[in-house]
User: What shape does this take?
Amino acid sequence: MSVATNEPISAIESAGKPAPNLLRRLPTSRVAMVGLALVLFWVILALLAPVLPLQPPNAQDYLAMAHTGSSAKHWLGVDPLGRDLLSRVVWGARTVLAVAPVAVLAAYTVGAAMGLLAGYYRGWVDVAISRASDVILSFPVIVLYVIIIANIGPSALNIVVAVVLASAPGISRIVRGLVMSLTHQEFVAAAYLRQESDVFVMLVELLPNCRGPLITDFCLRLGYTTITIGTLGFLGLGLPPPNPDWGGMVKQATSMITVFPHMALYPTAALVSLILGFNLLADGLTELSQAD
Amino acid sequence: MIRYILRRALEMLATLIVASFLVFVVCEFSPGNVARKTLGAFALQEQVDLLYKKLHLNDPLMVRYVRWVGVLTGLEADPLQDPALGLDFKDPRGARYFGNFGYSTLYKAPVNDVLWDRLGNTALLAGLAFAVIIPLSLVLGVLAGMRAGSVLDRSLSTLSIVMTSIPEFALGVLLVAVFVVALGWLPGTSPLDPTSGWSLVSQLVLPVAVLAIYDSGYVARMVRTSMAEVMAKPYVRTAVLKGLPHRQVILRHALRNAMIAPFTVILLQINWLIGGVVVTELVFAYPGFGRMLLEASLFGDVSLIEAATLIALFVATATQLLSDIGYRVLDPQARR
Assistant: This one.
């Protein structure tokens, strides 16, 4: 009996309760709607970034460096290198909102495959997959990220690789538990009687019936991954400059925080509001699935 | 019970061995790097090649890993300390002793000289954070879980979501902006240096606050769920219907059973704390273990990275073992 803290617990709690109409009932939860609004706000800004009348995010305005606060030209002021903060915050949303979902989706593909195999075949397959997961899960997460990224180098692709390696074991554990609780159900027996292949049973019968708890977990993981991307940026292991990246922007501004706190505060606020959006959405979904 | 503990301890040892091998693979997969990182960026290629040959870095990975374990357990002498190499790596403990983590190229000192002071500083930071996390999260969680769905529950639950939604570095920046920049009450860095003009206590306030706030929100949510579940149990309803005062129902009947699940989670928070410590120590320039690990990783100090991750892993797996044992002691049902 070991409980993994790295897991979003609410997903495990609601495991085994299929909630097919979860997304349709979303509007009834106020918490979820607030979260959704926050997320959509950033998604829309990120999509519109190229057409909005913004300054180029990497262009330096040397004249503005004399007065870095907000002005008619730079609404939120400029960063330590004289680049428009508003533009960098908006373009930074594109970075996070591109990398985080891709990373979580990739982690889900690997993790769900591991969990399906372990839960379906059991026996030595299960032992092998579970033991490997235990080893990865015994690492403190940030330590794992730091040694991976420091060794393979910081880039968007490597962040995705690191997130997959760190998150797939946790996802696999949830899926494995769900699959094990489902294999005794009649619809699985029916599929056997129809002589469906193993792959068919796993992908068509089992996986879709896991989706209720997984939707919640997906949202929570988006939040965690956003935290991770921000933190890696802050540690200097995020996307290479000059691309705007919220964590990296905060890192760059912290040395000047006593003089120009706004440079650090705007990207911080952006990051926190997006994470809060994902977490509120996940919380609302958990509440809805438990109301069944 | 003793058999269970022994079995789990063996599993822990196996996990440590496999995980340390993984770390070794990540750090030393390309053998050329090890020699290059040891000698630094300004060494000539011939010097690097010479060291490469002397350290037998062209041996298979598995052989090199066994050699590393040999040095660590004191069965073999650290090859880098060989005076014939002329690297001037000296360790007062000798070249062969148990727990020899090798030589740190970043700090130009044996890893054991660097490691333990910093681990002590981090233990202080984490210990203080823990002393805040436990009472704070218990109070928040129990108050919220007492009446699930009430206004108090909703406000406290939202508060804990907000607390867990602020990454440590962002929280550090926000707290610095308020308490250092705007109010000037506290120092913005915590080098644990008494001559900096700020007392040691004032230097610890912000780092501890960052760790405590982030983790408390998470633990409080766990306590709340567990408490809400117990409050819905028939025996609690019986106690209420018996006419017992609300206070007594909570303290005598509900709390004890509601604490079993959070106990495990609280212990496992140590794993989270190690991660939080890396970020927090960087924000406040705290001379601790986490910042050392980060600096070693960025510099490519292979021996120090391997030593630090091994210790982090040991702490993480040991607390997991403790929490599993504690869970069994607390919950008779888990013993089966």
Q: What stands out?
A: The CA atoms of residues 135 and 216 of chain B lie 9 Å apart. The mean pLDDT of chain B is 82. The longest strand of chain B covers residues 103-104.
